Amino acid sequence: MFPPALTDGYRAFLSDRFPNERRRFAQLAKTQAPDTLVIGCCDSRVAPEAIFDVGPGELFVIRNVANIVPVYETGGDYHGTSAAIEFAVQSLEVSHIVVLGHAGCGGIRAYADKAKPLSAGDFIGKWVSLVAPAVEKAGDSTAEDYTTRLEHAMVSQSMENLLTFPFIRDRVDAGTLAIHGAHFGVATGALLIRNPETGDFAPIVDRAGQALRPSALVTCD
Ligand SMILES: [Zn+2]
């Protein structure tokens, strides 16, 4: 049986969202023109469309374990992440790439704590070995906040790896593509943005210069 929760969700979609946004879906059927590529983690709790409050057609999203961008290389067999990056940049010509890490990332923990693998399968161990270059950026591995540091470092590493793709480097140098890093706190709702100068992560700032923090958005009597 098809998952009942999804059947119920689709019923709601048919009765509410689809009729209300029919024109938008008709337009989207002709073409897609997202301006931003988000590279996030598969983790079910970190849905870019929910965090950024956008609908279909607004973000081109790649999700893999631990939001990893491999370095550019054409050898080996299959490169799902690189293929999607190539399509977003070369064909859709996005203006922004956002690497989105998150708190409590199981993929990062799988690397940091090798004693407790995420699964007993054939693939995750090899995939998360791509976290290795981020370790140097994360600093002291005995620090209490080491996992968070490594999550931040992996965002930075993926950003660095994006620049190994010649078609990305060319666009960044030409000023037609910008690469950003972000980290989402699942429990707190905090979105931190990587400062390109310092590499530190700090609350996102809006167009008026206001830092957006979850607590600031809560209204109390
Ligand atoms: Zn994750």
Kindly provide the radius of gyration, computed on alpha-carbon positions and rounded to a whole number of angstroms. 19 Å
Shape: globular
Q: How many angstroms separate the termini?
A: 48 Å
Give the CATH level 1 class of the largest domain. Alpha Beta
Note the run of SSEs as H and E. Answer: HHEHEHEHHHHHEEEH
Number of helices: 10
Q: How much helix is in the residues?
A: 40-55%
The strand line-up of the biggest sheet is: 2-1-3-4-5-6
Major sheet: size, sense and barrel closure? 6 strands, mixed
Q: What is the structural class?
A: alpha/beta
CATH topology type of the largest domain: Beta-carbonic Anhydrase, Chain A
- Average pLDDT, rounded to a whole number, is 93
User: Which distinct ligands sit in these coordinates?
Assistant: zinc ion
> Can you say what the CATH homologous superfamily of the largest domain is?
Carbonic anhydrase
Strand content: 5-15%
Any guess at the CATH architecture of the largest domain?
Answer: 3-Layer(aba) Sandwich
Low-confidence stretches: none
Domain count: 2
Structure summary, number of beta strands? 6
Describe the structure.
This protein has 221 residues and is of the alpha/beta class. It has two domains: 1-31, no CATH class; 34-103 and 155-217, 3-Layer(aba) Sandwich (Beta-carbonic Anhydrase, Chain A), CATH 3.40.1050.10. 41% of the residues lie in helices and 15% in strands. The chain has helices at residues 4-20, 22-30, 48-51, 80-91, 106-112, 124-128, 132-138, 146-162, 166-174, 214-217, and strands spanning 36-41, 59-64, 96-102, 178-184, 191-194, 201-203. It has a six-stranded mixed sheet, covered by helices on one side. β4 and β5 (191-194) form a beta hairpin. The N and C termini lie far apart (48 Å).
